[in-house]
Amino acid sequence: xxAAPRPGSEGADPALPLPAHIAGPPGRRRTPPxxxxxxxxxxxxxxxxxxxxxxxxxLRQKVGNYPGVTVEKKVGETYSQHGxxxxxxxxxxxxxxxxxxxxxxxxxxVLLGRRADTPQPDRIICVVDACNLERCLYFVHQILxxxxxxxxxxxxxxxxxxxxxxxxxxxxxxxxxxPVISCAAVQGRGVVELRLAxxxxxLPLARHSWTVPAxxxxxxxxxxxxxxxxxxxxxxxxxxxxxxxxxxxxxVRVAGSTPLSAVTGAVLENWRRRWTGQGTDWSGTLIKxxxxxxxxxxxxxxxxxxxxxxxxxxxxxxxxVNSGWGWLAxxxxxxxxxxxxxxxxxxxxxxxxxxxxxxxxxxxxAMEPGDLQNLVTSGMIGGMGGVVIFLPQILILFLFVGLLExxxxxxxxxxxxxxxxxxxxxxxxxxxxxxxxxACAIPGIMATRTIENAKDRLVTILVAPLMSCSARLPxxxxxxxxxxxxxxxxxxxxxxxxxxxxxxGTAGAFGFAWLFKRTFLRGDPPLMILELPPxxxxxxxxxxxxxxERAWLFLKNAGTIILAISIVLWFLSTYPKHPDPAASPExxxxxxxxGEAGRALEPLIQPLGFDWRIGIGLVTxxxxxxxxxxxxxxxxxxxxxxxxxxxxxxxxxxxxxxDGAPLFTPLVCLALMVYYVFAMQCxxxxxxxxxxxxxxxxxxxxxxxxxxxxxxxxxxxxxSGRLLGF
Amino acid sequence: MSASxxxxxxxxxxxxxxxxxxxxxxxxxxxxxxxREMGCGEAALVTKLSGTTMSLCRVRGMRLALNHRAAIGxxxxxxxxxxx
Lengths: 726, 84
Prior knowledge:
The structure holds 2 protein chains of 2 kinds. Chain A is α/β, with parallel strands linked by helices. Chain A is 57% helix and 7% strand. Chain A contains 31 helices and 12 strands. Chain A is elongated, with a radius of gyration of 30 Å. Chain B has helices spanning 29-40, 68-71, and strands spanning 8-10, 19-25, 45-50, 54-59, 62-67, 74-79. In chain B, strand 4 and strand 5 (62-67) form a beta hairpin. A 6-stranded antiparallel beta sheet of chain B has the order 1-6-2-3-4-5. The A-B interface holds A 95-96, 98, 100, 131-135, 138, 163, 165, 247-250, 283-284, 287-288, 291, 308, 310, 313-314, 317-318, 321-322, 411-412, 415-416, 418-419, 422, 428, 524-532 and B 16-17, 25, 27-44, 49-51, 53-54, 56, 58, 60-67, 69-70, 73, 82, 84.
């Protein structure tokens, strides 16, 4: 329900005249050209902002990245009640204009009009969680300081009664002087009212004002004047920026990509020195003053109707976070998730495998035999198939991540895991990316964006590839089948060996995190303050949308890189041609560039028990680990290696060194698995780490340290095994 | 800061079910600023829900989880009666 419209806010044409700062001084303005108005949706994470964005824009959305950073940019179009188009930007979730993470910095910079790639919004829609109004109004209060038209959306109004609260939108509208819309975005309630408010030609500016505490007022005025004169900021933006500079001690962080002028920097430094000498806590004073005003507002707007004692959610939290039951529940959730990822995904994976094989057969039939046919079937379809086959696992992972986030359990799991994680210097929030990396390091690394501390985030990115991803599975399965063939060995032994590899990777990740946090990424043990969202039933529509979005990004980002590399690898293993056109695939590959690379690599990998043929597998599987299996199939002349592993297993068991000694001894199989546990055999991960860290330094370091560790650990395993007589 | 008639204790030592008033924040400036912005600044009332190593609290209507290192930096006066 929308509160009553304010005088002057009526109107039916949403097309806006250009704002004064674009259109020029009023005296010289002619009839302003009309253009599509830009709305920014802002709010804290998990306040239902994206649900509202989807409800407003439907499928008329474009998802991209803000240039220079890896923060997602979502822009959509919606229509006013009279059919005029309006642009909506869904800004990343933020708690305050004092940004702490790359996501929050983008929100701040767009709102302050600092980003050249994004227009400064004409109007701002502040989405707030009605159950958590006092906390959310802090950000709204900062936004009102910007002096732009604002609409406040009180979301989750359906949950207020359960929380024992009565929130009165009309009183809030009266106090703030801006439209306040009551909403339950998940149920689609309030969207029409919001669209109506957005359709108004003119929106009132906030009537609400607050007084900056007296000791701080002079510096706000001086900073504002300097920001206008020396930095060329518009007056209201200058005031908001002055308040931000006084809220956050780190002026470089506040200024972001537009550094402060020397004059403003000197003004700030001068006041800081003075206050430090006087022992004035200016940051605390300013924040406290804001909260006092907000607290007064909330007293007028919120009435408590329920008991203040522990609620059902409080009891559930005590059980899930602070008791042994919490660990049991966590183990059960993880067990179900892993079962789904590894067992249920098998069916769609087999289906995709069949479709890709069928496609390759059809192309084979339709094309003349030759290099082009081979490029399309082996290079392109085979290469793409190697990526697409993991899509079901990625989708299942995102289904679970969506379910856990949507119900509110994810934050509880992060709180529970904080204790073991902090022992190695990792943040509780690192748990989510590391968990995701068991399926695929790419979404896992992308999930580190929620970690505020840059060092904690970097450590998590650096160790994430050590969590055994699903691409290692085909290698492990082939090696276990070669090492322990037939039914004579109990399945539990094979499963135990598999578990050992997962445990080794996890221990490696924790060990390296510990090492990095004590050396070049040294920092204080992480402090964790986590907001626990309310428990809610899952929003399946939103989860599905997120899954599809992620799936598309995965295919686009990873698939294109792998396709390109597959073509390169195909070329390397096909040329130069063997003089004898009837030469077997094994002879041909030995003659190719890849074969030469394998031979060149042999002295380096012989101490690990590997020969040049395994070397080719290591080289080709740099595109993706699972390529190792198909490479072995080609090298040992076994077709269809991805499906039934028995013929390849037998071929590997029969393979010999030139002196007749078996190549794939149990020790070599074990050494190969250990190598794959640690080695960074994934081009896509390298590319994603480059994107996320905005530099080649860290992916190259990661590549070097993981490959180096893989070599050293494999060497130790193989040589120790030989000394022990294996 | 005015002297408190009640004992000043770290948040992690506040018994479960009890309410305290935040009187002082200690530690890194960035941390203090962040938690002030989250509404856990001086004078805010905090109700401990459970835990000592991971403190679950209610502040300004929101539920927060704070690890031991974070909770030990928040000094509260233990109020004898929870305000209703």
